Amino acid sequence: MSGKQSEMEGRLDDMLSRIAVETQEIEELERQLTDGQILANESLQRDLEGIISGLQEYLRGLREQARLAQHQVVSLQAENQSLQLHLEHSARTHRQDLSVQQEEADALRERQVQLEAELTRTQDEKASLQLTVWRLQAQCEVSRTVMDRTRIQLDQITEALLEPQELHIGPEHTYRTEDMLSRSVEQLLRAIQLTRTRTNQDQSREHIHKLHYQITQDQDQITQDQDQIILNQYRRTKDQDQIPQLEVLGVDQPQDHDQDQDQDKHQNWRLQEELQRLRVRLQESESRNRVLQNNREQLQDVQQERDALLLQSVGHQRSLERLNRKLRQLSRDMRDQLTVDQLRTTSQQLRDLTHTLQEEVEEHTHIVEQLGAELHKAQRHKHRTRTRARTRTRTEGGAVDSGLGLQDPHPEGGQHGPPAGGGKWVDSGGGSDAETSSRETPETPAGGVPPHRDTGDRCVCEFAHKEAKRLEEEKKKVRLESKQLRHTLRQHRSVMQVCDEVECVEKTLLKRQAELRRADRLLLEAQSCTHTSREQEERWSGELQRESLRQQEDNLKVRHSFSSDTEEEQLSGLMNEHGVWRAEPVA
């Protein structure tokens, strides 16, 4: 038994020594592992703390956003309820206003009926007054005719009385005139009296109408006074009836006076509390109404901005449609734009042609002026030759009569001397009267103008006149062509202006299209940003959930490792205590 026990103790000592060695090795390994794990755990802990802080901040932001959204939802619900209440109140007030307006409309209808009745009455009175006026006018006309007749009779009578030839007329005629005068005077007096009576009747009628109106007013006032008197009498009798009741109440009043005072005080206190509470509610409702009014104003501003934006968009669309229509119209007009260069070249050619035509016209006018000057010179020469021929014939006739002119008219071999004026024959190149001068002279002088010269001059004059007419016609044609060219140039200038306007419109359209594209691009960017923000939010929420799960797992692992470490430490402590306790007897 002792040997076995010793063996067992030896084995136990060996096992303990091995366990001690292994525990030391394990402690070294654990120390190494703990150092590495501590560093790794510290870095992971820092990362986790950063991630957790970021996630906590993000969660805090999300909670704040959720709280704000919930608050907004609550406020919007309250606003909706308040708006519904306001709508109900407005509908109620609208119904009341409608009822009031209906009552007013009924009253106005009744008033209209009354006014129509008064209008008919006034129209009847007006018709009656018009009849009276017409009757009075007729009476005035009758009185005027009577007055005119009497005036005529008086004039006749005065004329008859003033005529000196009628002084020797008999007494019968005087009696007749006196009778006529007396009758006319009587008729005049009757007419005057009739007019006076009629005016007095009219005045009396007006006075009677005024008295009737005043009497009706007095009667109305009397009826009102009687009603007031009856009402005062009724009140007086009622007060007299209440006097004994008040006396009876005055006898019983001292007994119940204290109770009534207590009840009145209690009621007053309760009423004051209710008034205070109602005032508080009124203030709260006023503040809510102010808030609602502000919210309503904000909503109205937003709606106005939205309406303004809608109107602007509608206006832009209309302007775009208008510009598109203008572009279509101008595109139809721009089909002729390709011929602008050709028209310019043709206009330049026409300008050159007009310039050349003007030069030719000026040359022709210069030629015509020269021909006119030559014609004037020829006419002067013709007149001069005619006068000379006449003087020569006269001198020759005188010489024949006197017997001194019998010499040969062609001395020296048919040669002709100078004319009888001592002058010489001058050829001006346009002398159309040479033939007449030669015919008037007795013989044709040697070296003078031939007989066909007059016909040549006439042909030249006719040719000059025809040329002048032709030039004038050409000038008119050139003027018409220049007018047509100017008209075409104006049209082309207007076309060019239209083209410039089209270019401006195209530029504005391009600008508007660029602005619309930029707005579309901005809208797409905003939509993409909102989409990306939603995706990021979803991703961050998923990552947050995953990180929270990882954190929970890490916490569980840390707790499990901490519990295992504590158990190992406890075991190692127990083993160390046991090893030390066993090592002391071995030593």
TrEMBL record:
Spans traversing the lipid bilayer: none
Regions of compositional bias (Basic and acidic residues) in chain numbering: 532-557
Entry coiled-coil feature ranges: 12-132, 268-363, 461-488
Keywords per UniProt: Coiled coil
Gly residues bias (residue ranges): 414-432
Region (Disordered): 373-457, 532-587
Basic residues bias (residue ranges): 378-392
Protein name: Centriolin
